[in-house]
Amino acid sequence: MAHPSQLGFQDAASPIMEELLHFHDHALMIVFLISALVLYTITLMMTTSLTHTNTMDAQEVEMIWTILPAIILVLIALPSLRILYLMDEINNPHLTIKTLGHQWYWSYEYTDYEDLTFDSYMMPTSDLDPGMFRLLEVDNRMVVPMEAPIRVLISAEDVLHSWAVPALGIKTDAIPGRLNQTTFITSHPGLFYGQCSEICGSNHSFMPIVVEAVPLQHFEAWSTTILSS
């Protein structure tokens, strides 16, 4: 969960988000080194009037500043492509959930169960208990078992939406007439908050997402309770 004045990302709650954080640090270090080198060169040029005649027309220098950026781009591109393929990998999911975006709420359907579907609305401020987050709490959370691959099928009924949960490294567009899919594995139990990340109308800011990761035994008890009610 993000907190006020936070400068970095939220703590990772899935293996994909951990990979994204590592790639962010990797790319940021490269950017920092390039910036430091450029700043040093500019400072050196502005503070000295000495000129080395051998560097005024040197093929070696031109080769270096042509090849070196290409190597740097490869060092950035290879980890990025690896993560892109990991994010698209869906291998034998234990649970499939269909998520449908509406103006302005989400509905969830657990397709592996016969009749397990519900709508998820934002809780009004007057109904919040102490410790709950305003504009982020919902009346029905999407409950999933932890440490299990979950496939989410995402679409919309009316306009464009986007199902995004930062701690899980997920942001997938919900498009009417099209079924997108994503996958995630929660590495520990907890509550993970998100919001619609596509401007979808006047109440775009009021359709939050809450994913609750629980042990498998608790998930089975929850599903049994929902089906029997």
From TrEMBL:
Annotated catalysed reactions: 4 Fe(II)-[cytochrome c] + O2 + 8 H(+)(in) = 4 Fe(III)-[cytochrome c] + 2 H2O + 4 H(+)(out)
Cofactor: Cu cation
GO cellular component terms, A-Z: mitochondrial inner membrane
Recorded superkingdom: Eukaryota
Compartments, record wording: Mitochondrion inner membrane
Chief place of localization: mitochondrion
Family matches, as Pfam families: COX2, COX2_TM
All copies of domain Cytochrome oxidase subunit II copper A binding, residue ranges: 92-225
Topology relative to the membrane: Multi-pass membrane protein
Cofactor: binding details: Binds a copper A center.
Alphabetized SUPFAM superfamilies for the sequence: Cupredoxins (SSF49503), Cytochrome c oxidase subunit II-like, transmembrane region (SSF81464)
PROSITE patterns tied to this protein: COX2, COX2_CUA, COX2_TM
Cytochrome oxidase subunit II transmembrane region profile domain mapped to chain residues: 1-91
InterPro entries: CcO_II, CcO_II-like_C, CcO_II_C, Copper_CuA, Cupredoxin, Cyt_c_oxidase_su2, Cyt_c_oxidase_su2_TM_dom, Cyt_c_oxidase_su2_TM_sf
Membrane-spanning ranges: 27-51, 63-85
GO process terms (BP): ATP synthesis coupled electron transport
Entry-linked NCBIfam families: CoxB
Function: Component of the cytochrome c oxidase, the last enzyme in the mitochondrial electron transport chain which drives oxidative phosphorylation. The respiratory chain contains 3 multisubunit complexes succinate dehydrogenase (complex II, CII), ubiquinol-cytochrome c oxidoreductase (cytochrome b-c1 complex, complex III, CIII) and cytochrome c oxidase (complex IV, CIV), that cooperate to transfer electrons derived from NADH and succinate to molecular oxygen, creating an electrochemical gradient over the inner membrane that drives transmembrane transport and the ATP synthase.
Identification of the protein by name: Cytochrome c oxidase subunit 2
Organism name: Sceloporus occidentalis (Western fence lizard)
Gene this protein is translated from: CO2
